[in-house]
Amino acid sequence: MPEPIITVANLGKRYVLTHEQRHDTLRDTLVHGARGLLRHWRGGPDPTREEFWALRDVNFSVNRGEVVGIIGRNGAGKSTLLKILSRITEPTTGRVGIRGRVASLLEVGTGFHPELSGRENIHLNGAILGMSRAEIRSKFDEIVAFAEVERFLDTPVKHYSSGMYVRLAFAVAAHLEPEILIIDEVLAVGDAAFQKKCLGKMESVATKKGRTILFVSHNLAAVQRLCTRALYLEGGRVKIAGTVSEAEQQFLADLAAGAAPGSRGIVRNDNPDFTVTEFSAVVAGATSKVVRAGESVTFRLRYRCAKPAAFADGISVSVIFHVRGQRILNLWSEAGRGSTFKLGAEGEIACEVPRWPFRGGPVSVDVHASYRMQNILEWEEALFVDSVDGDFYGTGIVPHESEGLMFLLHQWRG
Prior knowledge:
By secondary structure, the chain is of the alpha/beta class. 26% of the residues lie in helices and 35% in strands. Strand 8 and strand 9 (237-242) form a beta hairpin. Helix 3 packs across helix 4 (133-147). It starts with a strand and ends in a 26-residue tail after the last strand.
């Protein structure tokens, strides 16, 4: 039986959140200070401090040569877990056993010194990984060629674009041959060609050289292609540790279960004068969370605006669709209608999709609003739609799901 290269037992990570209290006068400051001392003396809870467990009771092991995907919603604890495995953060409870050299790529610029050149950072990262000068030199040309930064090799990396940064960082991490490679969604920074190149390199590293890879991604298609096993984290705990299909099916089922019209998702409101009171899908005159391919569906956004005059030029709205963690389509009002929406004190903005184009499965829908090209509201996962296969083309023939994620209205001539 193979010996695990990574062992995680009863792992937990706790943070203490501090809530600010305003003291506008000296009297308020003295009163709150006295109350705090009395509460501390009595051993009572402090309302300004809150415990938050990012991870709790996490247990799993990874064998040498395995490629393990880690999936889950935002805030599930995925990045916290990778930081602990990378020895960036100490766990609060439990233990982690790692046998082998670890290279981590958790965000753009991790492990790079901004004042050093690309050339110097390659040598620095190699030394941190415990490699000899001869080993680094033997890989140097291959790293530079993969990253495509030859012209800027002797330029300080603080002048690199985010794309150049991540290309070089990935090239260093993948080519300096650590036993364990930890990657957290950084490929989203690169363009499509580079992402494809990175996935190919990770496949090669895993299959041909027997390296162990932990890969966090919201792109379920990439996880399905690359990984041999998966962990599904929910609320800081491991909900599924099994095959990629098992983890993915449970994750998608949980997303669909939360697909009631008006589910809250993650809201960032940068201008409180504009708020969305409802975002829903309407099919045949009624709100619905199920849409069949080829049906007409209208996305209805209801809002309140405290100061309509502050948005005199009108706002733009985007309705954004994600399938299997990938952004597939953005319907931007300014491009679709050629103008912005003038606001009243309250009202409704609607986006009609005459023929729903998506295959069967959950579709996550975001809604964004902007004024003068500046975001005023971002609502991620505002809605989940359970898409059902249907006779999109009206021919009685429904292409197999392996033929793609979407249908497209088109015409044949001949």
